[in-house]
Amino acid sequence: MQTTILLILFFFVLPLAVGDDLRVGFYSSSCPRAEMIVHQVVERNFIQDGSITAALLRMHFHDCFVRGCDASILIDSKKGNQSEKESVANRTVRGFNLIDEIKKVLENACLATVSCADIIALATRDSVALAGGPSYNVPTGRRDGLVSSINEVKLPTPEISVSDAFKIFNSKGMTMEEMVTLLGAHTVGITHCSFIESRIKNESFSMDGDLRNKLFEVCGIKERDPTVVLDQKTPFVFDNEFYNEILLRRGVLSIDQNLALDSISKEVVTSLAANGVSFREKFVGAVVKMGKIDVLTGNEGEIRKNCRVFNS
User: Which residues make up the binding site for heme b (predicted)?
Assistant: First the structure.
């Protein structure tokens, strides 16, 4: 894969203040270089591995949809407590070492100042821009949570129906359009063959024949669990091609393909497929809104010194 991508960046500027708790530029006085440090570390890693964008987007989503955006997904298990990481849904989540690297640099620059929850949100933003997506302002001021339990992880599965997925998104305050827009992040997504094995083998599931044959060949390697990209056309570029692919029945995951087939979501898919600029704008609104789900602020939670371990 080429290590350089021609980036055409669109800047969507949000108001300086977002509510009373989170705000753009939260660290401007307490740690002025915080966002620059995050960007530099993410950029260095992105040059080595362009798939880090998909990893961070998934981490951000999996974190926010459990206890809220509190970095509870980063906690390691210990005796007496299995953390969120141990759940089946999170076993293939990647990017933890990158968060550790960012945290280490930030702690050297500004001791116990920048939360792990904000690091996830900022790193995700920067990785999206590096993959050719929009650059946008992230309101910060999140605090880190004090609980991480495997028993609380109830995330949408790749086989979930559109209506059931929407129930989960709607319970977090997200609209159908925002759900379809956020799932558009699969334009840079990757999945393991084990998640799509039944979909490939069962020809009753809607899928383009050429894609099925390609996936069957790749996933036929039994000694390991290969990965496949979710966007067959531009897999490492953050664009709206994902929607065009699923309209052609080239969705790899069941939930992705069903977005283009189900009447409650197809209109949104068609609209986003036809307008790349609109997708970028709507994605910014949706991902920023997601990043505010059940956040801890003020004196709530803590600022972890090590993102994998509670301070206490």
Answer: 186
CATH 1.10.520.10 maps onto the chain at: 14-155
In this predicted model, what pLDDT tens digit does every residue of 229-264 receive, in sequence order? 999 999 999 999 999 999 999 999 999 999 999 999
Q: Is 240 exposed, middle or buried (0-12, 13-18, 19+ CB in 10 A)?
A: buried
CA atoms of 73 and 260, how far apart (whole Å): 30
Q: How many CA atoms lie within 13 A of 39 on its CB side?
A: 12
Candidates 3.40.50.2300, 3.40.1010.20, 1.10.520.10, 3.10.20.440; CATH matching 14-155: 1.10.520.10
d(CA 117, CA 291): 9
Pairing of strands 17-18, 11-12: unpaired
CA gap 240, 237 in Å, rounded: 9
pTM confidence score: 0.91
- The CA–CA distances, whole Å, from 261 to 57, 65, 76, 124, 206 equal 25, 25, 39, 29, 9
pLDDT tens profile 57-82: 999 999 999 999 999 999 999 998 99
**308-309-310 Cα angle (round to 5):** 135
Within the chain, all domains assigned CATH 1.10.420.10 are found at 162-286
> What percentage of the chain exceeds 90 in pLDDT?
84
What band does 14 get if pLDDT is binned at 50, 70 and 90? Answer: very low
Catalytic residue among 39, 60, 62, 186: 62
62 is catalytic: yes
Topology classification of domain 162-286: Peroxidase; domain 2 (1.10.420)
